[in-house]
UniProtKB/TrEMBL annotation:
InterPro entries: SusD-like_N (IPR033985), SusD_RagB_dom (IPR012944), TPR-like_helical_dom_sf (IPR011990). Belongs to the SusD family. Keywords: Cell outer membrane, Membrane, Signal. It comes from Mariniflexile gromovii. Residues 281-583 form the RagB/SusD domain. It is found in: Cell outer membrane. Pfam families: SusD-like_3 (PF14322), SusD_RagB (PF07980). Residues 1-20 form the signal peptide. Residues 98-231 form the SusD-like N-terminal domain. This is RagB/SusD family nutrient uptake outer membrane protein.
Length: 583
């Protein structure tokens, strides 16, 4: 949608006069000088659809919609909060410590803002649907297609909200404010999944396989989302979030919808995280951003604006979202087989000793999955595949780039960063925004959704074949790092056929972590599998011996799988909404 955004940005701005911010999403009614009757034209409808697309990416550092670095990465075993100590953006410290125990905590301002931002996006989609539904079919050739796009956007928003809060009201078009106030968040978990699926199914049945304008939702994206949704739905949860059953028919749907998705892996894993490769063959559904598009600052994303390496003289600030020692250790491979050390990877640390040159040498005999040098900034190793940049000097990652190594260590994040001479940047004070897309689903996701379903259905060899396909791409993704001066210690092997179902599923879980490290899905994977308490408390038991700030962290099963329903929403509905358990 890069080119598309540039040509319709004026439409977004024109449509935006129809929307007003409000204190509460239930009080959010698009307002403006036009009534529904005289706005119901095909031309105005097109602008409203574009405004709905803008809504799913209208986020910021403290109300994220597009990046799950807080909710899915720091909340898991992948990363630490980082920044200038525990008090710096302390709400994320509370999330990381699993220390959010009351629903009306005044210090919790981030997740409630995400709630509001997503329901604002839903309101945009519903308002556009209300308008489009009034237009006669003969007057609007693209009517059904646009309705399908809007229902896709609405489903996407509800899907993410469900991952975060579980019990949410499902808001559709055609409702008055009074009717919306009567919609409860108390609904059977399976039925709520089906409501979201109905919107994706409408999109799947009414959208073309691909759109002429890049960035619009299409049948391919709808199929991918249906595979993802049915995978989550297959792991049936009780009222305290524990997995009680795995629905085999849902798993077969995962396979069926995954088979409807067309796509390909990027030839190099790093392409997914570099400016210039947006909307490539692996991109299935992404938040679209732009720069130099004729507007003053462009439509760039600041959602990860806190996360640049700190004190470099090359970036801005503020040193948030740092890889955990556990995450770094996970990239070790067996020197003989090249396979991950599934059970023993965390027994010893790698890159944990800084020498007099501020480097972290790798002990002899250790081999690595090359995805580590696409994911983590490590002192002494090239950052973003660069020894130097045109104007800014040395790009070897340095110990001094860590803002508070005594608390959070010194491993950086790389995927969400670009080289500092990138034309994709806008800098506002110390914060960097970028026009790089943020992926919601890439083709590697779809492949591993299918592999997971196959393994759970005891079609183990078929699932392992897909995992090995992902590993083949990883093995081929080394040249950029080597050219930039990384020592060639890469070794990627392949899982054998004939593995047990239990071992294959363990391999699947580990492969998802390596492939999507620090991209945000890790916490939600653990909750889906019913393994959050087991994995995260085991992680904390070891990690708190390495990082004192985690000394009192503890995950509580039956509570910490989801965020509390914002108390202001419960109050606004007069107590109609039920709170999640444990809060």
């Amino acid at each position: 949608m890069k080119k598309y955004i540039k040509t319709v940005l004026t439409g977004i701005m024109a449509a935006s006069v129809l929307f007003a911010c409000s204190k509460d999403f239930l009080d959010y009614e698009p307002e403006g000088v036009l009534s529904n009757e005289n706005v119901a034209t095909a031309e105005n409808a097109e602008a409203l659809v574009v405004a709905a697309y803008a809504g799913i990416a209208n986020d910021d550092m403290v109300g994220p919609l597009t990046s799950m670095w807080v909710y899915g990465s720091v909340r898991s075993d992948d990363a630490y909060k980082g920044g200038g100590g525990r008090g710096d953006v302390d709400v994320v410290d509370r999330y990381e410590q699993y220390n959010l125990t009351i629903a009306d905590d005044p210090l919790d301002w981030m997740a409630p803002r995400t709630w509001t931002n997503y329901y604002a996006a839903i309101s945009r989609a519903n308002f556009a649907l209300d308008v489009i539904n009034q237009i006669p079919d003969a007057d609007y050739a693209d009517k059904t297609t646009r309705q399908a796009e809007l229902r896709f956007l609405r489903a996407h928003s509800h899907f993410v909200l469900k991952l975060l809060f579980k019990k949410i009201p499902y808001i559709t078009e055609g409702l008055t404010q009074e009717e919306i106030l009567q919609i409860s968040n108390v609904i059977d978990n399976d039925a709520l999944w089906d409501k979201i699926a109905d919107d994706f199914l409408f999109a799947f049945n009414n959208l073309p396989q691909a759109q002429d304008q890049v960035g619009r939702a299409d049948r391919n994206a709808a199929a991918a989302y249906l595979a993802k949704l049915r995978l989550y739905q297959a792991y049936e949860q009780n009222d305290t979030h524990q997995v009680t059953n795995i629905n085999l028919s849902r798993l077969q749907e995962v396979i069926d919808y995954a088979d409807e998705v067309t796509g390909a892996l990027e030839s190099d894993y790093g392409n997914n995280f570099l400016d210039g490769f947006d909307n490539g063959p692996e991109s299935i559904w992404a938040a679209q951003f732009s720069i130099n598009d004729g507007t003053t600052v462009g439509r760039v994303s600041f959602v990860t604006g806190l996360n640049s390496p700190h004190g470099t003289g090359l970036y801005g600030c503020c040193g948030f979202h740092l890889a955990s020692q556990n995450m770094v250790n996970a990239f070790k491979t067996d020197p003989v087989t090249g396979l991950p050390q599934l059970d023993t990877f965390n027994n010893t640390n790698i890159f944990n000793v800084v020498n007099s040159n501020g480097e972290t040498p790798l002990a002899a005999g250790i081999t690595l999955d090359p995805r580590i040098d696409h994911t983590v900034g490590i002192p002494g190793r090239p950052f973003k595949y660069r020894n130097t940049v045109k104007t800014s000097g040395d790009m070897i990652y340095k110990f001094s780039w860590a803002r508070d190594p005594g608390v959070y260590g010194y491993f950086g994040n790389m995927k969400e960063q670009q080289a500092p001479d990138c034309t994709c940047y806008v800098k506002e004070g110390p914060f960097v925004g970028t026009s790089k897309n943020i992926e919601f689903i890439r083709y590697a996701d779809v492949l591993l959704f299918k592999a997971e379903a196959l393994i759970q259905l005891s079609q183990v060899d078929a699932g392992i074949t897909i995992i090995n396909q992902i590993r083949t791409r990883a093995a081929a993704s080394t040249q950029r790092q080597i050219d930039a001066g990384a020592s060639n210690v890469y070794n990627v092997g392949y899982y054998p056929m004939g593995m047990s179902k239990a071992d294959a599923f363990k391999a699947l879980m580990f492969e998802r972590r390596l492939e999507f490290g620090m991209e945000g899905p890790r916490f939600f994977d653990l909750v889906r599998w019913g393994m959050a308490e087991q994995v995260l408390n085991a992680y904390l038991a070891v990690e708190k011996t390495r990082r004192d700030f985690l000394a009192n962290a503890q995950f509580t099963a039956g509570r910490d799988e989801y965020y509390p329903i914002p108390q202001r929403e419960i109050d606004f509905t007069g107590g109609l909404y039920d709170q999640n358990p444990g809060y």
